[in-house]
Amino acid sequence: MKSSNVLLFIIMSTLVLSSCKRDDDEPDDPHNHNEEELITTVELQLHATDGTHASAHWSDVDGPGGDYPIIDTLVLDTNKTYSLHIEFLDESGDEVHDLTHEIEEEGSEHIVCYDETIDELSITRTDSDGVYEIGLTSDWVTTNASSGNVTISLKHQPGVKDGTCTPGETDVEVVFPTLIE
Q: Fewest CB atoms less than 10 Å from the CB: which of 8, 26, 122, 126?
């Protein structure tokens, strides 16, 4: 009786394991050739033409559903032009993985979208994939004192990028409280 149970267990295990194996004859989906990267941190570095700088940091290392994210308020001076460089990081493990270079290399599949609720701030993406803007770098121009939010979204748009923020999936979206003073 025991030997028949062992044999049945071996047969069932073999069937389950073989059903989970990927069929090498299956074609790869050309729009899903990269695994999704985990983005736990977004860093903003802004440098003004007069040498002043500003920065802000968002971090959600334990991911959705865990502790609340840590987010800085971005404080900018009035009447300035800033050049922004944004970085996307994965800090979930023992090592920090900078994903920014990969996003730049795959620029034809990504766009960084900026949506500001502040009339006294205008944002213009300054880098491109050769056809459409990417948004890893941008110019931020402030005028009068004000406050509001800047929402930054990284969109993944393989095969559908059209220069807008409409198509694709959102890899990460962060709302930065922003003060212009």
A: 26
Torsion of CA 94, 96, 56, 161, to 10 degrees: -130
The enclosing domain of 89 has a CATH number of 2.60.40
Q: Is residue 175 part of a domain?
A: yes
For the stretch 126-141, pLDDT in tens is 999 999 999 999 999 9
Cα angle 114, 126, 31 (rounded to 5 degrees) comes to: 70
Domain count, the chain: 1
Residue 84 domain boundaries: 38-180
Q: Please indicate, yes or no, if residue 33 is contained in any of the structural domains.
A: no
* DSSP codes joined into one string, 101-170: HHHHHTGGGEEEEEEE--TTEEEEE--BSSSSB--SEEEEEE-S-EEEEEEEEEEE-TTT--SSSSSSEE
Tell me whether residue 83 is in a domain: yes
